[in-house]
Write a structure and sequence with these properties.
The complex is a heterotrimer of chains A (207), B (517) and C (260). With 517 residues, chain B is an alpha/beta fold. Helices cover 31% and strands 21% of the residues of chain B. The radius of gyration of chain B is 25 Å and the shape is globular. In chain C, helix 3 packs antiparallel against helix 4, helix 5 packs antiparallel against helix 6 and helix 7 (153-168) packs across helix 8 (178-209). Chain C folds into 2 domains: 7-123 and 224-259, no CATH class; 136-209, no CATH class. The chains are: A mainly alpha (207), B alpha/beta (517), C mainly alpha (260). At the A-C interface, helix 1, helix 3 and helix 6 of A face helix 1, helix 3, helix 4, helix 6 and helix 7 of C.
């Protein structure tokens, strides 16, 4: 009869439930984003036709997995992991960006991850969430405007700047604020009882 | 502690013994312990059925024996979980012996890990570091033991029925050669055919390996002949021991028949009393409210391929049915026949592929003939639908707000809310978050929220799935009342006793195509 | 991939992935229609080897073509201008130069998107996970945990529909003003998140109960390299190389950081 050895876990290392839930949140984020962009096509179509950098305003949805994943799991690497998994999901669903979506996802996740790392993975309140979302948005804008695989690489300088500003704002509001609100709501349903975020509903907003 | 390579004598399984001495467990973040001071001894090879009201800690015990408690909830932050006493499998801690026990839970979808049959069965053996050749031998053996050896190893697991998925999970457990098999309500989400499939597979495996069995289940008749001991648990405390009754099945069931029935256990041969129909239950009586004419139904929307729209393949065709006030319509049939799909189409939530659903003026009252085209506010006043999973329908964060949601949108009906709260015993829960309720409470809440808008037609999708006997009786009686007051009730159900309790007509849907058995 | 017996299904997923990444990076370096067209030509030739037919490609690929066209359009109206001005309306200026850039952008977009489609048609996700864990030595808990979660995607998509219907049955109008629809979608998203977390938690228990998470494990399916993988890598290098050479000789090679 064989038995498996159990790794000793500390509170900063990932348990199996952290991995599986983080991966599924990332994938759910992809499903939601896909459904959302179907509905938003009526808005993004004209945006693109008129002044394409405006699409940066709805880019925040892209980055929800990074911030939401970290706010729920609260372990180092969660933002990076979730965003990369979400990008892998996009790749599997046949993204128009091809394999480059993996690079973009990594970069965006990195933006959020850096903010959480600056706060030593101890602060998960609203200002941190907003900053993380903005950072992810900033990195998204930079990635799209300056990386070789970026979709906006050929825009003129002024348009690139506009796009980056829009993505940063969109990241802060959609990826940052919405994820923070969602986490509080999820904590109230009791579904986060296995995670470090189980008390998120009653945590102070600003400190 | 490295995993030793024990692939020993082919097929040899050492049955495990379980010893609990004053064992207690409190989940992280909860105030009350889930299990308190449990004393229990299970001998190797024994087969035990665990019964008890919800809250007695049965699932917690099973999870602990499987070694999956503790890592999940222990987080080093305030509100740690708490263990007292000892719980030993073969004299050692379960956590250090994962793979010694195999655990099966009730949701078939999350018992499957990988997308190909062979890979999923091999998963457990891989984790136990069994050498590669031995793994595939075990896989073939395990699939044969559960009756799935006719499936090719690369058969997609998503194409399996619920019963097949649970049997696949059993095969995956058997590939680990466990000495202890733990089943946590394994047949709660299955249709009657699936229930027997799984029970028979378990019986065969136990006969072959002689492993110890601990099963938790509401429906005693399914397992009664298989087990040699029934243990009844209760929420323990300083005054009450955790084990209420313990003994051979016949003795326990005789002694505690009334007590078990009161706790909601489905004691064999006992169908809870429900309120009989008082009104006119003849088919054909009552005003016609909804009619389906030669409808074909499907859950999928037309797919877009390039510029063309491809209509979906219907799961069931040529259905004709009538819904009349004060009448019950039961939609029955095997899994996959499209019962839920048809019910949702009837309720105006899905569009029929061909044919049409029409509402008479009695029901539509000016909203139009096709329920699918009604606005959501118009729909809830006329047809109320209760989904199989209550959580899908929660839209607010408080029980009271849930009940007020419909009336607030309609602008009337808020006075009914208190009455409904009383009638469905939800008053003590008014400020709770709907997601935190127990299974039975969620079911009652979802029925109440739909009724708050006073619809004339009520559609229920598998309302008695996995319900204990008390909730079942309550629901059947409540619906009987509604029928007598003129509401039409359409239910999708496998439950023959439920259909009998409500009377009315039955719409039998035939199986669509042959699913790989 | 069930039913797909094409040649490329037998290659190791890592070599296929490496080839795809190589082509993506090389094509990304320049926006020009020559390198993109050369790459596209190769990719079309590879379809049968991946088990794709033109009909299948059209079914899966038409959103990509649309997206590439949209990207091409945006680029032509926003790229810095050169050559004769064709259209000048407010902030929109399209010149010969920017139109050429836009076209190149569209073709390049397609040339980058298609290899991923090719990859996914001839690679089973479980085999990819095996390769990543056994050959690339990524931590197996993360790789397999993610693989198991990915299996539930289809379920989640179905659940999205079900939740939408369930909420309509409660009176949540998904038609109506924009604000109403946004609120409805947000609520639906929340519902899906709850279900996702519940399912994932149960799946994690299933995996742990089967011994997952320990230090050592064996692999029932061996991920191996073969001569075919050498051919795949060589093919990728050849495709990338030819695209560059063709573009440089045609004079259209246009390194992204130098051009604009």
């Amino acid at each position: 009869m064989s038995t498996a050895a159990i790794k000793k876990t500390t509170s900063k290392s990932w348990r199996v439930v952290d991995i599986v839930v983080a991966a599924l949140i990332a994938i759910a984020g992809g499903v939601i984003f896909w459904a959302w962009s179907q509905g938003a096509a009526a808005v993004s179509g004209p945006m693109n036709a008129v002044y394409p950098p405006l699409t940066g305003l709805i880019a925040g949805g892209w980055m929800i997995p990074a911030v939401l994943g970290m706010l729920i799991i609260r372990k180092p690497g969660a933002a990076l992991f979730c965003e990369t998994v979400a990008a892998t999901g996009e790749l599997l669903m046949g993204s128009q960006y091809g394999a480059s979506v993996l690079f973009s996802g990594f970069v965006q996740g990195l933006g959020a991850e850096i903010i959480f790392a600056i706060f030593v993975y101890k602060k998960f309140n609203l200002p941190v969430a907003l900053l993380a979302g903005a950072a992810a948005g900033l990195f998204c804008g930079l990635n799209d405007s300056f990386a070789p695989w970026g979709w906006n690489i050929a825009y003129a300088g002024g348009d690139k700047l506009a796009y980056i500003i829009f993505t940063a704002i969109s990241g802060a509001i959609i990826a940052g604020a919405l994820s923070w609100i969602a986490t509080r709501g999820l904590a109230r349903t009791g579904v986060l009882s296995s995670f470090a975020s189980r008390k998120a509903a009653t945590e102070p907003v600003f400190s | 502690m490295e995993a030793p390579n024990h692939h020993g004598a082919a097929g040899a399984v050492r049955p495990a013994a379980v010893t609990a001495r004053g064992w207690g467990w409190r989940h992280a973040g909860r105030a009350k312990p889930a299990v308190h001071a449990l004393d229990l001894d299970i001998l190797p090879g024994e087969r035990v059925l665990l019964l008890g009201p919800s809250g007695a800690g049965k699932s917690t015990l099973l999870h602990a024996l499987a070694g999956v408690l503790g890592d999940v909830n222990d987080d080093g932050e305030a509100g740690d979980s708490d263990e007292s006493g000892s719980l030993l499998v073969d004299g050692g801690s379960p956590r250090g012996q994962r793979g010694r026990a195999g655990l099966m839970q009730q949701d078939p979808e999350t018992q499957v890990v990988l997308s190909r049959v062979g890979d999923d069965v091999a998963f457990g053996a891989e984790n136990l570091a069994v050498p590669r050749d031995a793994i595939w031998t075990r896989v073939h053996e395990a699939l044969a033991d559960v009756g799935l050896s006719h499936l090719p190893l690369d058969h997609p697991t998503s194409a399996l029925s619920g019963g097949q998925k649970q049997r696949l999970a059993l095969a995956g457990i058997l590939a680990m050669r466990p000495g202890l098999i733990l089943l946590d309500e394994p047949t709660a989400n299955l249709d009657p055919a699936g229930v027997l499939e799984v029970r028979d597979a378990v019986a065969r495996c136990l006969d072959k390996t002689g492993a110890t069995l601990v099963v938790v289940e509401h429906r005693v008749s399914v397992w009664k002949d298989l087990v040699d001991r029934i243990v009844v648990l209760q929420p323990g405390s300083a005054a009450d021991p955790a084990v209420l009754l313990d003994g051979p099945p016949d003795r326990v069931l005789d002694e505690a028949r009334t007590m078990l029935a009161a706790a909601g256990v489905w004691v064999p041969g006992y169908v809870p009393a429900t309120r009989p129909r008082a009104g006119d239950a003849r088919p054909g009586a009552g005003d016609l409210l909804l009619a389906a004419e030669k409808t074909a139904v499907s859950r999928e929307r037309p797919r877009r391929s390039g510029f063309r729209k491809i209509p979906p393949v219907p799961v069931q065709e040529d259905i004709t049915a009538q819904v009349r006030a004060g009448q019950a319509l039961a939609i029955t049939g095997p899994n996959g026949a499209g019962k839920s799909t048809f019910a949702l189409t009837l309720a105006g939530l899905l569009e029929p592929v061909t044919g049409k659903i029409s509402a008479t003026t009695n029901l539509s009252r000016g909203a139009g003939i096709d329920p699918f085209r009604w606005k959501a506010e118009q729909l809830i006043e006329r047809i109320g639908t209760v989904f199989q999973e209550p959580e899908h329908q929660f839209v607010t964060g408080r029980v009271r707000d849930e009940l007020l949601f419909g009336p607030r949108h309609l602008g009337h009906g808020e006075d009914r809310v208190d009455e409904l709260l009383e009638r469905l015993r939800l008053t003590p829960l008014v400020d709770a978050n709907p997601y935190t309720l127990s299974g039975g409470e969620k079911r009652r809440l979802s029925v109440a929220t739909v009724l708050a808008a006073s619809p004339q037609v009520l559609v229920l999708d598998e309302p008695t799935f996995g319900q204990d006997a008390n909730t079942w009786a309550e629901l059947a009686s409540f619906l009987s009342e509604l029928l007598d007051s003129g509401t039409a009730v359409v239910s999708v159900t496998h439950d023959a006793e439920f259909t009998a309790a409500l009377g009315g007509t039955e719409l039998k849907l035939a199986a669509a195509e042959k699913v790989a058995r | 991939m069930r039913g797909n017996n094409a040649l490329l299904t037998r290659a190791n997923p890592l070599s296929k992935l490496a080839a795809v990444v190589l082509i993506t990076v090389v094509l990304a370096l320049s926006i020009d229609w020559v390198s993109a067209t050369v790459a596209l030509a190769f990719e079309v030739l590879l379809f049968p080897l991946a088990g794709l037919t033109l009909t299948l490609l059209w079914q899966r690929g038409w959103p990509l073509i649309l997206a590439a066209a949209v990207g091409g359009w945006s680029t032509s109206i926003l790229a810095p201008d050169s050559g004769r001005t064709l259209v000048d309306v407010g902030i929109w200026t399209m010149s010969e130069g920017s139109l050429e850039t836009g076209l190149g952008f569209m073709l390049r977009g397609l040339a980058i998107a298609l290899p991923a489609v090719l990859l996914m048609s001839c690679t089973d996700p479980t085999d990819l996970a095996d390769a990543l864990a056994q050959k690339a030595r990524l931590p197996h808990r993360f790789v397999l945990g993610t693989l198991a979660a990915m299996r539930l995607v289809g379920l989640l998509a179905e659940e999205w529909q079900t939740i939408g219907m369930a909420r309509r049955a409660r009176g949540v109008g998904s038609r109506g003003s924009v604000l109403q629809r946004v609120k409805a979608t947000l609520g639906q998203s929340f519902g899906l998140l709850v279900q996702a977390i519940r399912r994932a938690s149960r799946l994690a228990v299933t995996m742990e109960a089967r011994g997952f998470g320990g230090g050592t494990r064996t692999w029932a399916r061996a991920s191996t390299y073969s001569v075919l993988d050498a051919w795949v890598l060589a093919g990728g290098l050849l495709m990338a190389g030819l695209a560059v050479v063709a573009a440089v000789s045609a004079g259209t090679w246009n390194m992204v950081w130098l051009g604009s």
